[in-house]
Amino acid sequence: MDDQKSNCDESDSEPTRESVRACALCNCVERSLHGQRELRHFGSTSELPTLQPTASQLPQPGNDELSSIGFADTICLSSLFDDSGCWVHHWCAMWSEGVQQKDDDGLENVDKAVISGTQRLCAYCKRLGATIRCHAEGCSTFYHFPCAAASGSFQSMKQLALLCPQHIDKAEELGEESWCAVCDSAGELTDLLFCTGCGLHYHAACLEIGATPIQRAGWQCPECKVCQTCQPGEDSKMLVCDACDKGYHTFCLQPAMDSLPTDPWKCRRCRVCMECGIRGLVLPGSAQWFDNYAVCEACQRQRTTVCGVCGKAAHPSVALQCCTLC
Q1: Where is the PHD-type domain (predicted)?
Q2: What angle do CA 193, 199, 201 make, to 5 degrees?
């Protein structure tokens, strides 16, 4: 069984929490994989109320699990604001209810959105920080920006309007904006993927890819897809993860790859051992993976040195019989 060497897009070192800057709405760091664009600093326009402190911690770089978006508990505003304002991703701010764009391309009321988000649960992840409301009249459903896509909601970049899955049928009223860029029809609205780069929609079936929550969040169409490491950078040797559909340059991975692999490839974030449950981000970049990145190095070693019946290690003079399937 051929081994597959782990090639990751990040270094193994993690900075201290003090060096981490995270969005005050989605709680993801700047280099997130969910398409929120850059972190921007917004000033305060109102006096901040005082909330009780919490033990909730900000994420470390690379912590892009959908389950870690937002805040699990009531947050102390002092952890979200500095002396002059707060840091929020561009799209997290633009899509938030009550935020308005000024003539100079600036945004106002972002701080008010952050304050309101501390009291609102996301309909998808059930965590605080949700500020994007469903556009349907009378609907009080709110989402974080990454969770909106993960939930299968329809998003209109032209109108900065969201329709939750329950009201997604209203997207047809937007005409061509709800059409797939491949088949030029609305078709199955629940199958549409929203490109966070250009705002166009594509049926997953038309592209012959999946439409899982991790694929939907931060998805980029073939024309907009950039390397998640150097974004954007040199447009060559792009490797696309078979699980999340995110792109990486072979030379941006650590360790770098000399060429594009012929077999399906998974990025480090999407590798999970089906036997012990360990995730790729926990292991060093040099770790090896087997069975299409489904078995970690330690479990593979266990497979080849320990009897599957008695659970004992084989004597050096005894050859274990290996199953050709598992």
Answers
A1: 54-168, 221-273
A2: 35
Is 319 a domain residue? no
Q: What is the dihedral of CA 131, 134, 137, 140, to 10 degrees?
A: -60
In the block, residue with structure tokens 């078709």: 187
Burial class (CB in 10 A: 0-12, 13-18, 19+), 49: exposed
**Rounded to an integer, what distance in angstroms lies between the CA atom of residue 306 and that of residue 268?**
27
Structural tokens at position 37 = 């664009």
* Average pLDDT for 98-116: 91
What are the tens digits of pLDDT across the range 191-230?
Answer: 999 999 999 999 999 999 999 999 999 999 999 999 988 8
Q: Please state, as a whole number, how many other Cβ atoms lie within 10 Å of the Cβ of residue 119.
A: 11
Residues β-bridged to residue 191 = none
What residues contact residue 243 under an 8 Å CB cut-off, 6+ apart? Answer: 214, 215, 266, 267, 270
Q: Classify residue 318: in a domain, yes or no.
A: no
CATH of the domain at 274: 3.30.40.10
Number of domains composing the chain: 1
Q: How far apart are CA 31 and CA 39, in angstroms?
A: 9
User: Residue 163: what pLDDT?
Assistant: 98
Who has greater pLDDT, 142 or 268? 142
Bridge partners, 154 (sequence order): 163
If one compares 2 and 29, the residue with the highest pLDDT of the two is 29
The predicted-structure confidence for 37-55, as pLDDT tens digits, reads as follows: 999 999 887 666 655 555 5
322 is a domain residue: no
Phi, then psi, of 176 in degrees rounded to 5: -60, -25
What is the 3-state secondary structure of 255-278? CCCCCCCCCCCCCHHHCECCCCCC
User: φ, ψ for residue 212 (rounded to 5)?
Assistant: -75, 160
Q: How many other C-beta atoms lie within 10 A of the C-beta of residue 21?
A: 13
Q: pTM here?
A: 0.81
